[in-house]
C-alpha cells in the first residue's frame, strides 16, 4: 500500500467523544474529533479542584478548636487580639495591592490565615498595638514586597513574631489561665503578669509545676493558640485527612525533638517526662502542623520534606538547650525556610533517562 493511501486512511479515521472510532461529516467534509483525554495541551497536566481559598479555609477550620480554647482559657482579650490581627492583615494586604496596582486577593483568605497564626503566637498580655505592628511586617514587608502570595521566602506570621521581639518586654509577658484582663485596654497592669511558661522552667533544668495532662489540654501559661497540644494535633489530623498537608514534615519535626529530648534530658529529669513536656510545651505543635508545612516555604518532594522536618527539630532542640531564648520553633522554621531552595535542588527526582545530581558532579 502506497504512502498516499495510508495518509488518506489516517485522515478518514476519527474518534468520537465516547472513544469509539467513527467519521463525522461537516458540509461534506470529514472532521477528526478526539476525546478530551487525548487532547494535547501545555502544562500543568495534573489538575486539582483545590484552590487557594479552599485550602486556606481548611487551615482556618483546623485552627479554630485551639483558638476557641485559647479564648476560653485567657478570656475575651484573646479574641480581641485575634480580631485586630486578622483585620490588620486583611487591610494591609488590600492597601498594599491597591498601591502596587495588583489584583486584590483578600478573598482567598491567605491574609486571614496569617492574621490568625500571628495572634495565636502572641501572649494575651501584649499591648493591642503589637498585632498591628506584626501584621504590617508580615503582609507588607515579608509578603507583598516580595511579590505577594507564593513568592515570599519565609513564613510571614513567624517572621512577624520574630520581628516583634524588638519589644522583648511586651513579647515575654504571660499570665495564668483564667486571669481577668480588660479585653479592650491598650496595655495591661504589669502586676498581673507573673506566670512563667513551661518552657522557661525546662530551660532552667526543672520540670514545670503543671501536670502533663494540663499541658496536653492547654491549662497552662503561654501564647494564645499554642497551649493546647491536643487540639492542635486534632487540627493537624484534620489537615492530613483533607490532604492539605502530608505527614512528612510534622512527623520528622516532632519525632526529631522527641528522640533528642528523650536521649538527652536536662537537669537529671526522667527521660520520658522530659520528652513529653518538651513536645507539649511551646509552639512545637502549631509550628509542625500549621507553619512548617506552608506550601510556599517548604520543600516539594517527600525526601525534601523529611530533611526539612529533621532540620527544624535539630535547630529547635539546639536553641532550647543552648540558646539565650527558651523557644526555638520559630527560629528553626525560618532558618530552614531559607534552605528550601537547596533542599529542592538536591532532592528533585531524576528525569526519565537523565542523571542524578551526584553523577553529574562526578562527571565534572
Q: For this structure, what is the CATH class of the largest domain?
A: Mainly Alpha
Query: Uncertain spans, ≥5 residues at pLDDT below 50?
Result: 7-25
Tally of individual domains? 2
Q: Taking strands numbered 1, 2, ... along the chain, how are they ordered across the largest sheet?
A: 1-2
The third-level CATH topology of the largest domain is Ammonium transporter fold
Distance between the termini: 52 Å
Number of helices: 17
What is the overall shape?
Answer: globular
Mean pLDDT: 85
The secondary-structure element order is HEEEEHHHHHHHHHHHHHHHH
Indicate the percent of residues in helices.
40-55%
Radius of gyration using CA atoms only: 26 Å
CATH architectural category of the largest domain: Orthogonal Bundle
- Per DSSP E runs of 2 or more residues, the count of β-strands stands at 4
Structural features, described:
The protein has 364 residues and is an all-alpha fold. The protein has 2 domains: 3-38, no CATH class; 52-347, Ammonium transporter fold (Orthogonal Bundle). 55% of the residues lie in helices and 3% in strands. The strands form 2 sheets. A two-stranded antiparallel ribbon has the order 1-2. The protein has a two-stranded antiparallel sheet with strand order 3-4. A hairpin with a 2-residue loop joins strand 3 and strand 4. Helix 10 runs parallel beside helix 13 (284-291). It is globular, with a radius of gyration of 26 Å. The chain starts with a helix and ends with a helix.
Structural features:
single chain, 364 residues, mainly alpha, Ammonium transporter fold, 2 domains, two-stranded antiparallel ribbon, two-stranded antiparallel sheet, 17 helices, 4 strands, globular
Amino acid at each position: 500500500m502506497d504512502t498516499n493511501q495510508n495518509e488518506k486512511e489516517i485522515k478518514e479515521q476519527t474518534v468520537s467523544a465516547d472513544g469509539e472510532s467513527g467519521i463525522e461529516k461537516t458540509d461534506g467534509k470529514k472532521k477528526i474529533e478526539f476525546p478530551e483525554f487525548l487532547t494535547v495541551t501545555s502544562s500543568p497536566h495534573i489538575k486539582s479542584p483545590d484552590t487557594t481559598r479552599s485550602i486556606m479555609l481548611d487551615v482556618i477550620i483546623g485552627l479554630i478548636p485551639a483558638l476557641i480554647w485559647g479564648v476560653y482559657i485567657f478570656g475575651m482579650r484573646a479574641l480581641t487580639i485575634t480580631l485586630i490581627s486578622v483585620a490588620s492583615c486583611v487591610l494591609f494586604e488590600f492597601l498594599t495591592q491597591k498601591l502596587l496596582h495588583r489584583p486584590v486577593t483578600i478573598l482567598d483568605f491567605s491574609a486571614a490565615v496569617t492574621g490568625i497564626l500571628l495572634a495565636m503566637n502572641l501572649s494575651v498580655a501584649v499591648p493591642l498595638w503589637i498585632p498591628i505592628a506584626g501584621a504590617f511586617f508580615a503582609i507588607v514587608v515579608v509578603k507583598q514586597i516580595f511579590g505577594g502570595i507564593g513568592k515570599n521566602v519565609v513564613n510571614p506570621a513567624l517572621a512577624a513574631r520574630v520581628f516583634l521581639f524588638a519589644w522583648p518586654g511586651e513579647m515575654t509577658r504571660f499570665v495564668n489561665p483564667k486571669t481577668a484582663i480588660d479585653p479592650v485596654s491598650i496595655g495591661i497592669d504589669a502586676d498581673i503578669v507573673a506566670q512563667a511558661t513551661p518552657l522557661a522552667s525546662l530551660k532552667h533544668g526543672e520540670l514545670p509545676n503543671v501536670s502533663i495532662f494540663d499541658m496536653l489540654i492547654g491549662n497552662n501559661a503561654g501564647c494564645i493558640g499554642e497551649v493546647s497540644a491536643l487540639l492542635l494535633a486534632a487540627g493537624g489530623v484534620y489537615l492530613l485527612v483533607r490532604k492539605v498537608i502530608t505527614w512528612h514534615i510534622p512527623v520528622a519535626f516532632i519525632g526529631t525533638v522527641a528522640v533528642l529530648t528523650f536521649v538527652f534530658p536536662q537537669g537529671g529529669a526522667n527521660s520520658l517526662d522530659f520528652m513529653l513536656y518538651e513536645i507539649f510545651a511551646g509552639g512545637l505543635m502549631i509550628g509542625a502542623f500549621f507553619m512548617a508545612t506552608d506550601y510556599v516555604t517548604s520543600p516539594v518532594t517527600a525526601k525534601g520534606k523529611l530533611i526539612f522536618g529533621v532540620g527544624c527539630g535539630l535547630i529547635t532542640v539546639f536553641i532550647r538547650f543552648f540558646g539565650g531564648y527558651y523557644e526555638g520553633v520559630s527560629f528553626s522554621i525560618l532558618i530552614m525556610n531559607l534552605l528550601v531552595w537547596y533542599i529542592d535542588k538536591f532532592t528533585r527526582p531524576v528525569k526519565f533517562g537523565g542523571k542524578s545530581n551526584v553523577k553529574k558532579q562526578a562527571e565534572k
